[in-house]
Amino acid sequence: MDVKAAQRLQLSAVVQPERFGRRPPFSTCRLGVSREPQSLRVFVSPMMMRRRTTALEVSSSYDNISGMMGSGKTTVGKIMSQVLGYSFCDSDALVEEEVGGNSVADIFEQHGETFFRNKETEVLHKLSLLHRLVISTGGGAVMRPINWKYMHKGVSVWLDVPVEALAQRIAAVGTNSRPLLNYEAGDPYTRAFMRLSAIFEERGEAYANANARVSLKKIAIKLSKRDVSELSPTDIAIEALEQIDNFLKGEGGGYAEC
């Protein structure tokens, strides 16, 4: 068994979805300056491989997860934070707190998108001063160059999900919480697909600024899945951790991609 296969087995064993039902496996963040060191060594030693413990060293202040709405940034980010022993932050949730607890949809309606984006930039700036975080960023955060200045204080990961899969996910749960999707006519899937396609056309190049790209299509092929809908959040989180590791081993000199 090669090293990468062994590491995937080890991570699969330590990341157990059923553990999420018993108690929160991660801690949430609060805005403020941390004095924690900027590196953390995590030892993953499942029962099935007791004698072969892998050390995964993450030498960045924090990890950012970007991607389109519905790409699973929050779910995957929480799993990653569990494995790394980091706190988890959702930048949208922090913006909501900053604006008195209003939802993103309400903020868009009451104050406009520019107001929201300004608050989002303020939050990302504050988060860039902290350590030991996994951060799920808003889907549109990638459009402001200043945001990349803050996000590149750590390692940024792009969850690349096919638009068709995103539209299916969002249509299944509704678009009420997605302010950018509430202006299209048609059935839920068609409305989501058409708008998401336009949004991706606008943002695609910006997402490519991430240090690592995690393509769900490629993961599905690698794991012999019929399509991306068969991938679990754990599958995606493991791949993201591997890509971060690859990027750091390359000393940030290249673009890691699955």
Automatic annotation (TrEMBL):
Keyword check for Repressor: no
Example GO BP: amino acid biosynthetic process
Pathway recorded for this protein: Metabolic intermediate biosynthesis; chorismate biosynthesis; chorismate from D-erythrose 4-phosphate and phosphoenolpyruvate: step 5/7
GO cellular component: chloroplast
Keyword Transmembrane: no
InterPro entries given in the database record: P-loop_NTPase, Shikimate/glucono_kinase, Shikimate_kinase/TSH1, Shikimate_kinase_CS
Compartment(s) of residence: Plastid, Chloroplast
Major localization listed first in the record, in broad terms: plastid
Catalyzed chemical reaction(s): shikimate + ATP = 3-phosphoshikimate + ADP + H(+)
MF annotations from Gene Ontology: ATP binding; shikimate kinase activity
EC number annotated for this UniProt entry: 2.7.1.71
Keyword tags: Amino-acid biosynthesis, Aromatic amino acid biosynthesis, ATP-binding, Kinase, Nucleotide-binding, Transferase
Pfam families linked to this entry: SKI
PROSITE patterns named among the record's database cross-references: SHIKIMATE_KINASE
PANTHER family listed in its UniProt record: SHIKIMATE KINASE, SHIKIMATE KINASE 1, CHLOROPLASTIC
Described function: Catalyzes the specific phosphorylation of the 3-hydroxyl group of shikimic acid using ATP as a cosubstrate.
Family that this chain belongs to: Belongs to the shikimate kinase family.
Protein name: shikimate kinase
